[in-house]
Amino acid sequence: MKRLLASLLTLSSLTLAAGCGDDKDPTPPTTQPPGGTTAVDVSENIKGDTTWKADTVYTLKKYIFVESGTLTIEAGTTIKGEEGSALIITRSATLNAVGTAEKPIVFTSSKSERREPGDWAGVVLLGRARLNVSGGETTIEGFFATSGNDLTKYGGTDDAHNCGTLKYARIEFAGFELAPNNELNGLTLGGCGSQTNIDYVQVHKGLDDGIELFGGTAPLKHIVITQADDDALDYDLGYSGRIQFLIVQQSPTVGDRGIEASSNKSTPTQDPISIPEIWNATFIGSGPGTNNPTQEALVFNTGAGVKMRNSIVAHWKTQGVDIDGTASAALFNETGDNARLSFRNVFFWDIAGSNTAIPFAPNPVVVNGVTTDADATKLDESKVVINATNKVQFQDPQLEAALNLTAPNFAPKAGSAALNADGALTPPTGFDTSARFVGAIGATDWTKGWTAYPAE
């Protein structure tokens, strides 16, 4: 409730300020903290090209909208968020945030100690690519729809729209619930197109989802999502981008799903349908001993699908795959390699305590407390997902230390079947075609040097 009130007050102040003109000094105040680094409080929206320097620590004081121009963030820059703050790149602006493995850009909590999920609201990129909603555009989650406020709108007709670049960056302790089913995540992408560049990005300990994609075609590469409070990767409203080299690790006490995939709740067949193509992913739960009551790896509903290849799904307490509803089941029942909900060359291991079968995930229909249909989907995942022809099988990937929360190692051990090129497909054009291995990491561990896993 405290965070919700803070968010409401923040949004109210932004709405009022937008109608008062530009009579305030846009230059943020600066101070000189110990060590010679400049500290800057960011409390006004950004209009026009702006650069944030590596020798400065920037603190977001509220929702900061980049209304126009390009916000450039230098390698090694630290951005801190106070409660009720977020950085939003509107669809009339662009982000150019390029760190390096040695000098990643870090978005984190402004607290000096006892940082926790939800300390601030996260990073939002909005674009002009297609959505499957009426009218083609809408207000991004985490904000109330406000008449005349274009800053929170996203969507359009340009599937190649460039929201900008976020590379070698960490986003920590973010996420915000404005209202039930209306949240900001660690990283939120709304209607971002295929020219957007999200590469080498970690989202750690987010209050809601790690990354959520609303429509669009934005590609993701070299992504690490660790210990999200809800889902690690959530996509809906027609997202159909390319994803390669994705790592998910859930906490034993929080976290719901590795993927929650939706398309359109009211009209599941509305184009574009949510069907991303995912290559070389590793989804790690926390095993049967978790305190979390339910923990599902991959859930597809409301007509969403996926084309998943060369991936690992291991250590999930409750469920491996849940195909929920007749629309998503119809995509799975399509035949051939172009089936819009399909798995090829995927290793499952330690699913609901079993290494022989994934559980059946029934979708009962309940009316007034009475079950009228034990399974509306009419698809038994336990009998059809594991498929020798498609090389979808139970196989121990032999990862080094995937369950370690503070110093994980998601690389396969020497001799692991995941490293056998004969057990992997060759990724198609548009992906890294040299990645002939199963899972997110092959012979070279690309997570080293720029990721971090702080407990608080």
TrEMBL record:
Transmembrane segments: none annotated. The keyword Nucleus does not apply. Residues 1-17 form the signal peptide. Keywords: Signal. InterPro entries: Pectin_lyas_fold, Pectin_lyase_fold/virulence. The keyword rRNA processing does not apply. Residues 20-39 are annotated as: Disordered. This is Lipoprotein. It comes from Pyxidicoccus fallax.
